[in-house]
Design a protein that fits this description.
The protein is of the alpha+beta class. It has a single domain, classed as Glutaredoxin (3-Layer(aba) Sandwich). It has five helices and four strands; from the N terminus they run αβαβαββαα. It has a four-stranded mixed beta sheet. Strand 1, helix 2 and strand 2 form a beta-alpha-beta unit. Helix 1 crosses helix 3 and helix 2 packs parallel to helix 4. The longest helix has 21 residues. The chain is globular and about 35 Å long.
Length: 117
């Protein structure tokens, strides 16, 4: 599986995902740090990919959605933006409800999948 396929898999498997430099606990750049803090403040679990640990993903990610910088935040498979947009959404009170809805939809999908087994 090439890097773009792996990126696509990460995005599809995680209702809320950040591609960042470092981890939410130990970010390695200010933009990733501030974005992860805003996301954590929402109180909704999210996935992350440390692009510093995977040079192929770091190189391929900017071409995935034509977004050249890190971090990149995805909700329900869609790029919502980078640090500035995510932080603005948090400050306006828009990020938490978006995350809560994505998490709820994911739980509903898992529950209906479990019932079908």
């Amino acid at each position: 599986m090439d890097a773009l396929e792996r990126i696509d898999q990460f995005v599809k498997e995680n209702p809320i995902l950040i591609f960042m430099k470092g981890t939410p606990q130990f970010p390695t750049c200010g933009f990733s740090s501030r974005t992860a803090e805003a996301m954590k403040a929402c109180g909704v679990p999210f996935g992350y990919v440390n692009v510093m640990a995977d040079p192929e993903i770091m190189q391929a990610l900017p071409s995935y959605q034509d977004w050249p910088t890190f971090p990149q935040v995805y909700v329900n498979g869609e790029l919502i933006g980078g640090a500035d947009i995510t932080i603005e959404m948090y400050e306006r009170g828009e990020l938490k409800p978006l995350f809560e809805e994505a998490a709820a939809n994911s739980e509903q999908a898992k529950a209906s999948d479990d019932q079908g087994e």
